Amino acid sequence: MLFGYPIEATSENWLHECLEEILKFIHNNLTNSKISTGWAEAIAEPYRGLLQRRLNITDKSKITDKSKRERLTLGDKLLNYQRSLQNLTDIQREQILKAFSDQNNIASLLCGNSTCETLKDLPEDIRQPIKVLFESAFEILTPLGVRDRHYKKIYDESLDRICPFCGSEYFDAPSAPREALDHYLSKESYPFAAANLHNLVPMGNKCNSRYKLTQDILRNDDGVCRKSFNPYNHQKITISLDRSEPFAGIIGNTGEHLPEWEIDFIPHPQNFENIDIWEEKVTTWDEVFYIKERYKRDILDQGFSKWLTGFRSWCRHPRTNTPHSEQEWIEAIQNYTNYNEEMGLEDRAFLKAAVFRMLCLHYKNGNQRVIQFIKDVVNDVSI
Ligand SMILES: [Zn+2]
Q: Separation of 168 CA from ligand 1 center, angstroms?
């Protein structure tokens, strides 16, 4: 991903922490042959007060309206979980509590420093109660206001307010209809992390609904473990197109061959991570979000001609002297590159900057076809 989210956005992770306390309370009771539904005892104020009503168990005999009877509380779902646990052995219960802990060791899992069991590794009878319980916990983040405050912190801290997974989808303001909130570790495989803010990331709708979907960020399609970027602990990435080959790609709508794009990801200078590990994470990012494919097909091939038109306007602007000497041409391309670099992610300028950095390189290296092409574009009097 192109940049990370501030860790401060995850500070209100109390619902997940309360669930952890309640689960420990349930497991501890069962170990001591006790059964209790006094789960509120396990959590401190003010959260006890905030959750008290939701922890109540529905007395279905008192509800005559059938549709209301279907609406189970968090307490009802905890009760289902507890009942399913009662039928399991001590060893199986330990396995489940360990899976809860391991699935929420998110930073370590993403670095490949630890592993965890998935839902399908757990005893069959407990899978559905776990899934239902934690999906319900995720859903109540919205009425509790946690989800909106989490998003607002990220939105307010971000300069560009753009999806960091692709760099091209704008995020709407916090009062707009909500952006997707992705379960970075999918809730289908890692349901215990479904309400953990460290696992919840605002994501553009295309990245979320067309590309990532339910892909497992921790394992590839063959089930092999892979490393992934941590959205809450991540340095910026720069794009380089310097290895691209001009006039070697598909034919553009001006009839000219576009460059054959070679996209490289460059770590931030202050990235202290082992470069092999970092590259493994880049590979996962690209595999899950189809980054190179999307950049080539949807942005670079489509934008190249328009971006050259923009450069022509820049060179012809009254405040800019149209370049004449070779040095002036190089300076013009460099200045335009710098201007786009300063724009950052705005309007995909980071990719535009990479295109002109690549063209400048070829210009300086004396690539006559590139030199003539740029001059023709800028000097074309018919436009
Ligand atoms: Zn995106």
A: 6
